[in-house]
Amino acid sequence: MALAPEKTVPPARHLLDAVIQRIGHIVLGKERQARLALACLLARGHLLIEDLPGVGKTTLAHVLAGVLGLQFKRIQFTADLLPADILGVSIYQPENKLFVFHPGPLFAQLVLADEINRATPKTQSALLEAMEERQVTADGVTHKLPEPFFVIATQNPHHLIGTFPLPESQLDRFLMRIEMGYPDRAAERALLKGRDRRELVASLQPVISADKLAGLQRHVAHVHVADPLLDYVQNLLDATRRAGEFAEGLSPRAGLSLLAASRAWALLAGRDMVLPEDVQAVAPSVIGHRLRPVSGGRAVSVARLLESVPIP
Amino acid sequence: MNTGIAHRPVLHSLLAAGAGAVAPHILELPLWIIAVFAIGAAWRYACEAFQWYRPGRFVRLTLMLLILVAVFRQYGTLLGRDPGMALLITLLGLKFLELKTQRDFVVSLFVFYLVILGSFLYSQSLWLGVWALLAVAACTAALMHLMQPAGMDLRRRLRLSGMMIAKALPLMVIVYLLFPRISGTLWGLPADAHSGLTGMSDTMQPGSIRSLSESSEIAFRVSFDGASPPARELYWRGLVLTETDGRGWRRAQPIATDKVSFTPLSAPLSYQVTLEPSDKPWMPALDLPATRPKDARLQSDFTLKHNDPVRERLNYSLSSYTRYRTGAPDRAERAATLRLPRNTSARVRALAEGWRRENDDPLRVAQAALDYFRHDNFVYTLNPPLLGDDPVDEFLFGTRRGFCEHYAAAFVTLMRAAGIPSRVVLGYLGGELNTAGNYLIVRQSDAHAWAEIWTPERGWVRVDPTGAIAPERIELGLDAVRRLEQQGVVLGSLPADAVLHALELGWFEYVGLHARWYWDLTNMAWYRWVVDYGKERQERFLTSLGLDEISWSRLVSLLFAVALVLTLAYALILLRRKKSVDPALAAYLRFCRELARTGLIRAPYEGALDFARRCTQRRPDLKDHVDNITGRYLRCRYSGHDSAEELRLLKREVSAFRT
Fold first, then answer.
1. Which domain, by its residues, includes A53?
2. In this structure, is residue A246 part of a structural domain?
3. Between A and B, how many residue pairs show a Cβ–Cβ distance under 8 A?
4. Of B178, B195, B226, at which residue does a domain stop?
5. Which residues of A touch B622 (CB under 8 A)?
6. Is residue B51, in this structure, part of any structural domain at all?
7. What is the ipTM of this complex?
8. Which residue of chain A is at minimal alpha-carbon distance from B629?
């Protein structure tokens, strides 16, 4: 279908297709999750992955970093982790009698915050604040975080003993929340037969340069959003506020996030305009964690919400 | 359209709508008929939810025959209102078991509408009207659910169907006001539609009024043109009983007359009566009626009789004189009102003859009888003991506990034994003044029996022996008597102010009473303006519009003209709203309509790309066209490049598109 004006987008599209394909070589059978993660990154958001251990959360983060040529740091969150442990500390240097800031592991382009709910709320807030501000302030001096800056946090929703679950207001800081899920039978077979994933990750060559990635991120902002599409997004927001099914409706920030993610998704599909399908594709990941059912109500189903709102 | 319906939620909607449609019939039809319907519904539910056995064609056929036989045995026929409704409802229950295609569901839903309409054959009350509206809304919502299983949630469906009904209301009102009414019974209810009405029977057996007094059903309502007279004058004459076998009392055949022969002694009272259907021809009137309403006759015993049994609510205006002097009865009437049953006991005769010997004046004899009731330990009670073969004797000398009918029967027997022409009058006494609407409500429980004796000076004179023993019954009404009895008060034992104190209402009862009055007023308005809107009222309404003497064919033309204007106006509004629609969207919707003809229906939430993918899976032959049109549409609508050329091509391709 000749939907895209072929002149402008092909380079971006080919590039992104190559990225997705390369991720697919290592993270098997998870193309949708890979696309969502990439869209999240392109929309300059942060990603929360919720699932059981061992379903490939960490591998996905590793692969993304490798394919995109991003500097990668991993922080394993524990109960005794302190904010300074991730942000960095200023240390007195007797030679020049100055405090010199030693950046923590957060100063990387792609940070994997593993098991974020094991850390104390204090440390969690430090991370979330840095994610939002894209800078770290220590001893009154502001240190900019690298560009691009992308946090993938993981948490295991099923083992809650000894954890500090993120409060709803903090969940909002993540553009998307996705679940990995078990691989299908064929993918799992390929995984079992194939080489060690760690080796594969280590041998990854970047497909894209940091410059190009920044360009793509700028490009996302220019994907066109027409008035009928804004009508649709607003109708969706309205529906969550009027449905009576949710404890509270979506915030305007959620609307902005939905739009940004839809733009990135459209770019991934090689289009320079957002279609309602793009909104529908990202909506479960973008708004699923921002909605809570009213007490005693049935579980939140974004699919049901989408089915209740006609496309104008 | 013969696609199988597998969606369980649609079945739930259907069953719920069916329950709503059938519910009013629970009050009217035998329970087993409702049970068959409920079992059918439950069985089908179990088939869906627990994979129960689903009967095959042979079993269903057998069940249907069984149902036919059962309905026939219940009613002795398969025609008429009750058997018809019974068949409709039981077979619907059976229909649930064979629901498969969309067509089955649609048929069932349409029959639900019919069942809802059918409940109006039994009652036209306000409650039922409200319920029917809700049931229609539920059926319409179920129909929406069927046509669009995933499109909307329950609340939206109900809201949309409510809105559809609201939009249809103006048209409904116009059709209601203008549709030609035919007077008479052409479109009347089937003959069996009036069974089960309560009303005064035309005989009086011991206990017959007692059984009426249990019923709080409304007999009639009266609004007076001026102030209403005091309760002790509100004797509503129903019918006159002359013949007796000692136990029961029957009417004699009075002569119909159009002229009344009495001399009024007071100013006339004018009032309007709204009589509830009773399936009897008696029309209660205040003692004594002087005018004759339409379709009714005055009779020589001063009662009013309708030409047909009253089967629909009847409105009539009357004027009456509460004081009067009547002429003498003719010879046959005199003989009839003196006739004693053969089994009248000797001591009854002796008692009456004793009074007669002492007094010459019939009124004094009557007074002696009343004094006897008053002083010889007679008790007025709503729960009298049962009486045997000679009730008058047993009552006078044995039990001495009775109700108005016992006193009236005993009094008339005594008078006849004393040689005074006398008869029993059956009717109603008093009524409850509804201050909310300033009218009187007379209930079946206000039924009363009193006596009339003939005196040469004054003609027929009303004597109420109940008044001698229980003046509270006359002054305060039967309801007061019942409440006094519940408090353990012996009638006649308390001074007047103590009785009034005992009858004072608590605030709760006070609020309840007034709520009841306002509810009755609302019902009156509903009947007056909605149910009773017949030919006469329609003519009055049309006259007020300046349309006198309009023939019904012109009325139909008028109706269609108004409906047409209304529809056109509504269409115009819709069309004007459509103008603001994006031309690209309009073209695309045309394209969707073309595809819908092949069964490819786009859900309202379905994006154009997804829809195109679904279409090309089902119809690969259309792929090029569908892709082209979808692509052009999306570019026109979402790309932000305003391209007239693209729009032109889109329109052209949509016009050329054929499935």
1. 27-208
2. no
3. 60
4. B178
5. none
6. yes
7. 0.85
8. A1
Nearest to B648 by CA among B582, B587, B591: B587
HSE-up of residue B281 (Cα within 13 Å, Cβ side): 13
Least confident of B314-318, B436-440, B497-501: B497-501
B111-120: long-range contacts at Cβ-Cβ below 8 A with a sequence spacing of 24 or more? B112/B17, B112/B18, B112/B21, B112/B139, B113/B21, B113/B139, B114/B88, B115/B21, B115/B22, B115/B25, B115/B85, B115/B88, B115/B89, B116/B21, B118/B25, B118/B84, B118/B85, B118/B88, B119/B24, B119/B25, B119/B28
Q: Across-strand partners of B304? A: B283, B298
Q: Residue A16's pLDDT is what?
A: 85
| Residue B38 domain-assigned (yes or no) | yes
Q: What is the CATH number of the domain that holds B386?
A: 3.10.620.30
Cross-chain residue pair B152–A308, CB shorter than 8 Å: yes
Chain A environment of B605 (Cβ under 8 Å): 280, 306-311
Domain that holds residue B275: 203-508
Q: What does the angle CA B512 – CA B215 – CA B75 come to, to the nearest 5 degrees? A: 125
- Quick one: how far is CA B113 from the chain centroid? 20
Q: Looking at beta carbons, which pairs linking B491-496 to residues 24 or more positions away fall under 8 Å?
A: B491/B379, B491/B380, B491/B381, B492/B380
For residue A138, the domain's CATH number is: 3.40.50.300
List of residues 6+ apart from B569 with CB closer than 8 A: none
Question: Is there a single domain that holds both residue B575 and residue B593?
Answer: no
pLDDT digits 0-9 by tens, B122-144: 888 888 989 999 999 999 999 98
The answer on B240 and B282 residing in a single domain is: yes
Q: B191 lies in a domain?
A: no
Residue of A nearest to B603 (CA): A310
Q: Quick check: is B520 in a domain?
A: no
Q: Using alpha carbons, list the distances in angstroms from residue B462 to A58, B375, B423.
A: 106, 21, 10
Do B367 and B386 fall into the same domain?
yes
Residues B555 and B596 in one domain: no
Tell if the CB–CB gap between A273 and B612 is shorter than 8 Å.
Answer: no
Q: Which of A27-31, A109-113, B49-53 has the highest mean pLDDT?
A: A109-113
Query: Closest residue of A to B638, CA-based?
Result: A226
Work out how many domains chain A is built from and give that number: 1
Interval B157-172 mean pLDDT: 88
Looking at the fold, whether B362 and B314 belong to one and the same domain comes out as yes
Those residues whose C-beta lies under 8 Å from the C-beta of residue B415, and which sit 6 or more positions away, are B352, B362, B365, B366, B369, B421, B422, B451, B453
> Measured between CB atoms, does A307 come within 8 Å of chain B?
yes
Q: Enumerate the active-site residues of B.
A: 404, 448, 464
Split into its structural domains, chain B has a count of: 4
Same domain, B314 and B354: yes
Sign, CA dihedral A210-A212-A213-A214, equals positive
- Rounded (to 5) percent helix, strand, coil in chain B: 55, 15, 30
A60 domain residue, yes or no: yes
Region A147-167: mean pLDDT is 81
Tell whether A17 is covered by a domain.
no
My answer on whether B403 and B416 are in the same domain is yes
Task: Report if residue A311 sits inside a domain.
Answer: no
Contact flag B638-A228 (C-beta cutoff 8 Å): yes
pLDDT computed for residue B5 by the predictor = 47
Q: What is the pLDDT of residue A48?
A: 92
Structure tokens at B374: 């008053």
pLDDT of residue B188: 43
Q: Cα–Cα distances in Å, from B295 out to A143, B159, B253?
A: 103, 48, 19
pLDDT digits 0-9 by tens, A27-37: 888 888 889 99
Nearest by CB to residue B640, choosing from A226, A276, A309, is: A226
Judge whether A224 is closer than 8 Å to chain B, CB to CB: yes
- Report pLDDT for B92: 93
Mean pLDDT of B630-643: 86
Residues B560 and B614 reside in one and the same domain: no
Averaged pLDDT, A185-196: 84
